[in-house]
Amino acid sequence: MTLAGRHILLVIAGGIAAYKCLDLIRRLRERGAQVRCVLTKAGSHFVTPMALAALSEQPVFEDLFALTDDFGMSHIRASRESDLLVVAPATANLIAKMAHGLADDLASTLLLASDKPILLAPAMNVVMWNHPATQANLAILRNRGVFQVGPGTGEMACGEEGAGRLAEVPLILDAIATALGGGGPLTGRRALVTSGPTFEPIDPVRYIGNRSSGKQGHAIAAALSRLGASVTLVSGPAALPDPAGVQVVKVETAVEMLAACQTALPADVAVCAAAVADWRVATPAAQKTKKSAGGAPPVFEMTLNPDILATLAEAGPGRPKLVIGFAAETQDLIDHARAKLVRKGCDLIVANDVSAATGTFGGDANQVHLVGADGVETWPSLSKTEVAGRLADRIAALLGERD
Ligand code: C5P
Q1: pLDDT for 100 beyond 90
Q2: Fewer C-beta within 10 Å: the chain N or C terminus?
Q3: Ligand 1: which of 235, 255, 257, 326 to mutate, judged by most atoms within 8 Å of the beta carbon?
């Protein structure tokens, strides 16, 4: 990926993850980009202007009213001269200011004065990240077309564990390339993809799951991203690397998957490739269920899970223009797929035979039929990557027709 001749304005807010910006600047410059840094007051507690200036070989801007900075009063010029504004780390505070149009320092003023694409790489404590205020602010920004990469999940500098880590630098680089637009037919489109199985807890150590590997869903997310879409992949537990340039949200249960999908909206296209459990144990036990003395097996009361595909396909202003489902069947494939198309209210069903003999579950090949209102199209046996590539091309064509 070359970024030769591209101008990036990097806004560094106050968080321990700010140190990763030093590496980000180096990697951007290796790819030919020019990087100018804006450092917030809080950010300057974590990285020095000297380090940023040395790596970017550009002056660093910190003060809205500084007479020494060659910006003068020209915040507008600073953003006009950039192809993309990247906020990394984006703190809860700066995200809140952006969502509500506050401009009380150079960074927030530049962001408000900009008509250029903006990419946020949030980083914060897990409780701040999960707070409804932060999530609502991000939803406002997403609705305005702001791009987002991460945060990742794992151990954090504050010692807590969970979502809130700054996305790794290679992921931020991929997201920058996507936000700048590779010129693909899905540039400027947003896509939501579900993938993998769901795990429904029985008690703290046991769950009900299924054999989905997530290979097909992950390949679709990657293919849509390659065509320029800004992709959110909501994935159940899958032993697969995160696809490059894709925003990945990891969940376990169907209820969590639905919530994550709704948070990721709006989208132009939703592709539901996840193998979602139809039922869950109504009340998972708080402690591990022990074998009873008489050896009688436990009986679990089950309850229906939400149907994510059907929910996303419901008519309304927030419905993606294109909603695509999968039908994994072991018999009467096409009949079941036709019935599913109507029952779920989606635009297209990708039907595949998952009988053990086909090796589809967990395997690398897939033979699918595209079932739509106007008929059935049968594709030859292809690799899951090829199926994903063809499907992404078809999505681009269908969205083009619907404009
Ligand atoms: O009803 P069935 O599970 O056969 O439908 C499969 C399709 O519906 C897939 O696209 C799957 O991702 C989606 N689905 C869903 N939520 C469910 C069940 C299935 O999104 N609870």
Answers
A1: yes
A2: C
A3: 326
